[in-house]
Amino acid sequence: MSERQDVSGPVGQDVSEPAQEEDPADEAPDPAQEEDPTQGEDPVEEDDPTHEVRRARWAAAGTGALLALAGLAAAALRATGSAPALVPAAYAVGAAVCALAAFVGSQGRTRRALWLLVAGVMVMAFGDQSD
3-state DSSP call for residue 118? Predict the structure, then answer.
């Protein structure tokens, strides 16, 4: 049962109030005291220019390497078949340009790397059309 306190007013009326006990479950947790799961980590801001530059470097280098490997594989496959010599040569040259783009992109020249990637893929496409 709950405890009640009787309080008499100046006119003689009885006013009763329930006694308030502090219950820790009723209190709302303070957001400032809650533990942050990323506490202790260095949060990466989306607008951080160095993060964007690093991501562009990795994208250019990774794409160049992937396209260079694909071009070398295509050149090897076409060289074993009955395709004209121009076809595997075009794939190999395109792969070399893409490898150069990967290197240039890893050095931070992402705009030049992207243009080299476009040129390398165009050379490989020319070899594909010659087939």
Answer: helix
